[in-house]
Each structure stands twice: as C-alpha cells, then as structure tokens.
Amino acid sequence: MPRPRDRILANLESIYRQAYERAKTTDDQARMADLDAAYQREQLLLEVLLDIRDAVAATTPSVAVTPEKPAAPDPVTALETIHRLTKLR
Length: 89
What we know:
Largest sheet: none
Oligomer: single chain
Strand content: under 5%
Number of domains: 1
Shape: elongated
Helix content: over 70%
Structural class: mainly alpha
Order of helices and strands: HHH
C-alpha cells in the first residue's frame, strides 16, 4: 500500500525545515534562499509524481489474486497510462 500523500509531503517539509533552521542559526542568508527555492521545486516535482501515481492506480483494473496468479504491477499498462496523461496536457 502506498504511503499517504500528506505523510510524504510532511517528510519533505521536515527535511528542508531542519536544514533551513541550521542555516538560520549560522545566519547564512544565501543557503536559506537556496533551500527555500529547492524546497519549492522539490515539492512541485513530488506532487506531480504523486499525481501520476494516483492516476496509474486509478486506471489499473482490479485483478483477482490467486495462488496461481499473484498480484503484480503491469509495467506496460502503467507506461500506457503515463503516455495518455502526458498527451492530455
């Protein structure tokens, strides 16, 4: 089961907040600005990846899991979904 979106974004924020506070204690303004820009960029990229994950999960049909046929992700279907999503934009 994938981790919840809020938990992932909270982890990202926690990592950057710790680094930002370290830069703040040394009064490193340049580092603080770099971290702020990097956080915004990483957050945007992560949200896009999470949107793709959610879209792929929503379009993947449910398959009955049996001992003979274990559940496995279908990479071809995932690639087709990503291809369709990128054509929409």
